[in-house]
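pipeline/complex-builder :: batch 7 item 3
reading input block
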Amino acid sequence: MNGLRIGLLLLALMGCLLLGLLAGSVSLPLTDVWNGLWHGGGAGGAIVRDLRAPRVVLAFLVGGSLGVCGAALQAMIRNPLAEPYLLGLSSGAGLGAVIAIASRAAGPWAVPLAAFLGALAAVALVYRLSLVSGRRLDPHVLLLSGVVVGAFAGALMSAVMVLSDAPGVRNAFLWLLGGFGAASWRALAVFSAYAVLPLGLLFYHARSLDLIALGDEAAHHLGAEVDRIRRVIYLSTALLTAASVATCGIVGFVGLVVPHAVRTTFRPLHRTLLPLVFVAGGCFLVLADVVSRTAVRPLELPVGVVTALVGVPLFALLLRRTLA
Amino acid sequence: MGGLIFTLRLQSRRLALWAWFLLATAAIGCGKAAPRSPEQLRQVDDAGDTVALVAPARRVVSLIPAATELLFGIGAGSSVVGRTQYCDYPPAALDVPNLGDGIKPSLEAVLAQRPDLVLLYNSGQNAAVAGRLREMGIPHARINTDALSDVPRLSRMLGLLTGHLRGADSLAAVFDTALAQATVKPASRRPKVLLLVWEQPPMTVGRGSFLSELIERAGGENVFSDVTASSGVVSIEAVAARDPDMIFTTSEGPAAFASRPEWQVVPAVKRRRFLGVSGSEFERPSPRSPAAIRELANRLREAGP
């Protein structure tokens, strides 16, 4: 890593954030955006200050968090297919959201809160199932438990959707497809307060991830407490992902592919990989959100759809070029 | 043995009686006041298929709430032998067996009612069911019930198929008059209305949708009339930019989303300008639509500019 690369990365970061502020379903000239941002007045003051700014920052934080979760899980489970939603989280969150809608739970925060609780319940179940012989978290059992708990929660979710006669229960999937339409400074504050601890823990254990990636025995000989680190990493990624699902639904693809894209381009150690993935994931999601807001104005595309539609071809290209 | 012969003879007598009756009616038919010939019981449904009946339908499974309402409206209510879980009007419809939500219905449940006509909503999801019914030779029609103009049109179609043409004609005539009377003449400045049909994410309906028609006829203006899709997710930013005067919701009282911080950018939310309605007359085109329009017009007038 040299100064030039870091400089380029920061430049890309600033560019993404600026683009996020400029783009939207309403066209605002640069001067209006600038004035609105700093003075709150003008034609689009409220739009820029209360809608776009928190939305861009939230998309960046969520994208970064999902990317870091993916990178950490891939190293911890030693499986390139590992991603934040693999561990039953997304179906758990979906089940929570659908139950909230089907039971006509009132209140402005009912659906996100229920999704968060559903995700946590799935995490707790997967965690309990994967603890073998006392306190050891087996990566293979973890993967399998995640898949079966996810399948079970998914089946329950479908059953509730079919049986419920609540109006709009079929719209639950729209919420789950993901989007930052409900971003606000308060949502940003809640997510940030929530994300600080798990993100800090993941960054702190970056060196241990390099060791674990070598294999349990090697890591153990090099002084890493493999079992404890594995538990910490699993719970941190789970909490972080649950918080992001509650904030913006299920945004797939970021956690799976951004870490791989960064790895194939830079091949760094986890100490530098995690910050790089954080920035790259954040920029990627901000850009995807820009597309979701502007592609079919005044309608919005679910951002999860955009991340896959834009990301998959990009990643395929990257993969082919590295292989060649 | 004797009993058996007696029964057989009785049956043959009954058969003879039937044959006589049929011939007689046919003769009367040839003579005067012709009953409908099979050609007249032929209709092209909204999927482009021809529905042919040999006699007016007497056992109708109606898997569309709007069609159920119309059947009762034209006097064919006693012929309805199956409905969806959403068919809640008129109250008498609730006595009809409930066959589920009407989308991709269970064929067994439909067949158990021994229908001579099945009404399906014209959507891609029902195409397979229509195919199976065709294979089994059960008459069925796929119909659209998305616009106010469907009410008189379908009323006549169902009137023909069930032999209640007179009831259908009068329903259509009354509907057209009532609709014309209920429609508010567009004022110079119409209140701008956001039709919010779902809150998370915010979903609205565009031009040509039934709710949009209702609000326009009630003197309002749909702020998303440029959206041509029947419904779509919109951003709060777009809502704020279009600055609606009123927000139409299908929940009574101030909706839960109104207290969320991101919505405070919309002045109508901040000022709690909600037009909440409930009731199935706001869910589908029906003979009750003119009354629904009048209610909306009154509420818009009361709310003022």
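note: The radius of gyration of chain B is 24 Å.
queue -> next item
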